[in-house]
Amino acid sequence: MQAVRLHETGGPEKLRLEEIPTPEAGAGETVVRVHAAALNHRDVFITRGLYPNIVLPRTLGADCCGEAGGAEVVVDPTIGWGGDERVWKPDATILGVPLDGTFAQFVVVPQENVHPKPQHLSVEEAAALPLGGVTAYRAMFVRGKLQAGETVLITGVGGGVQTFALLYAKAVGARTVVTSSRDGKLERAKALGADVAINYATTPDWHKAVKAAVGAVDLAIDSAGGDSFAKALSVVRPGGRAVTYGGTSGDASLKMFPIFWHQLSIFGTSMGSPADFKAMLAFVSEHRIRPIVDRVYELAEIKSAMQRMDDALQFGKIVLRIPQ
């Protein structure tokens, strides 16, 4: 079969499209014929060696929609979460490092990780859903406890997870404040229902602009860390919540007094449990949510697709079409 493989780190240019043996299912496993797969920032990080537990060579990719047993399916990319809903087991893994992933014509996964594709989604939309969709669902509802009528701050809108967060917030009737460094992404977010949109590049004190616009927020969702997370905390109302699922801007330097004086709740989150994944699929189906697909590339165009993601040009998810 054809697969996108990484034999050495050094950036997306090190990726190779090559022929490898088609995998076979073991006990309790299923072979999924992949029709479309989606990129995540972790794929770029892996090519640069900026991700733990990298074992090479490896087929990249965590997200996919495909076919198994004659039915259209999506795959939960988190393998072996464990029995504790609060946190995954230390030996839990994910497709696309340390396990072979979805940038291939076939992928082998545990049977319990295979789920029916939401009927209202196209193959490309469904491929865009798994990792970003479940990460946003857990951040917003399991950890963040977002309710209808509340106000949520979503920093860095335009990436996959934050775009899902916007769609989910609007689906439940929450007010949304979004930030980005690109006006084009802010316009797209407003078209999707964002109530307030602020360019943090042209408004360095964007947190003050948030306060001027809405007063305070009930929930903040952030993946950047660093200065972004510190400013996000400053606009959370007393008794409010903040959720972080990343640290692309590095560690945050936080003022402790506002945290304890305002009795803020800060939650970390990553991926989602099997129960989260099933709940996310049900939520997406109930609210007829359609993932935002930025652009579709052929599998052989993987380097161009990865470069678009690395340059942060996308709004929503970048998808690969897999040859059949």
Mean of residue pLDDT? 96
Choose one word for the global shape. globular
The count of β-strands is 18
Rg, Å, rounded = 19 Å
Task: Characterize the main sheet.
Answer: 7 strands, mixed
Distance between the termini: 10 Å
Tally the helices: 10
Q: Helical proportion? A: 25-40%
Determine the structural class based on helices, strands and strand pairing. alpha/beta
Please provide a written account of the structure:
The protein has 324 residues and is α/β, with parallel strands linked by helices. Helices cover 29% and strands 27% of the residues. It has 10 helices and 18 strands. It has helices spanning 41-47, 123-127, 130-143, 160-171, 183-191, 206-214, 226-234, 256-261, 274-286, 302-310, and strands at residues 2-6, 15-19, 29-38, 58-59, 63-68, 71-75, 78-79, 93-94, 106-110, 114-116, 151-154, 175-180, 196-199, 217-222, 236-244, 265-268, 293-298, 317-321. Strands 3, 5, 6, 9, 10, 17 and 18 form a 7-stranded mixed sheet that branches. Strands 13-12-11-14-15-16 form a 6-stranded parallel sheet, with helices on both faces. The chain has a 3-stranded antiparallel sheet with strand order 2-1-4, with no helix packed on it. A hairpin with a 2-residue loop joins strand 5 and strand 6. Helix 3 (130-143) packs across helix 4 (160-171) and helix 3 crosses helix 9 (274-286). The N and C termini lie close together (10 Å). The mean pLDDT is 96.
